[in-house]
Known about the structure:
The longest helix is centred in the middle third of the chain and has 24 residues, at 114-137. The protein has helices at residues 3-23, 30-37, 42-47, 51-62, 78-95, 97-108, 114-137, 146-158, 180-191. It folds into two domains: 3-55, Homeodomain-like (Arc Repressor Mutant, subunit A, Orthogonal Bundle); 66-192, Tetracycline Repressor, domain 2 (Orthogonal Bundle), CATH 1.10.357. It is built from nine helices and no strands. Helices cover 64% and strands 0% of the residues. α1 (3-23) crosses α2, α5 packs antiparallel against α9 and α7 (114-137) packs across α8. By secondary structure, the protein is mainly alpha-helical. The radius of gyration is 19 Å and the shape is elongated. Residues 6-66 form the HTH tetR-type domain. It holds the Pfam family TetR_N. This is TetR/AcrR family transcriptional regulator.
Amino acid sequence: MNHNDCDIKMRILLSSRKLFAKQGYEGTSVRQICEDAGANVALISYHFGGKEKVFTALFEKFFPGKLMSDYSERLSDPISGLRLLISEIIHFTFQDRELSSIVQQEVMMDSPRRDIVMEFLYPVWSKVRELLLKGKEGGIFEFDSLSNTLLMVIGAALAHKRVYNFERLIAEEEMNPEQIPEQTVKFILRGLGVKDA
């Protein structure tokens, strides 16, 4: 594959990510993607095999969960592992707002592409679950129900995504995106009974 092929594939992916986030998968046509990318309409079929394959390619290219194997040592310890994963989940939602919005849309709408999205999300949340269980078994974490605790951790890690629903209740000066990951991690670890979180 030559440089121009790589360039056009990336332009198609970037345009798809932008348009899917803004108008949804169903509301975005192949023609719109190609117009935005400055590409011939036939190139989506040629490079990807169709619009749904572009959707999957977005996650293969941009979803950071595939990098977990690079951090296997940190992810073996319940506290440092949770600290890393929760921080990275929150950073992802701030740094790649488009892909994060696509995830949220597809999951909330229970779309036909939900299974594709969950294929990428499950390994991350499964690792969180594994760390919670390991921490409880090791006497590091205290909680009653693993399932309920996992749901609360997921909720805390993603709560900032819907902050605009509660604007009247929240002081804007306290919502510093750079501090949210560390504050959320502290909140979760303290909730799990870690005293010096």
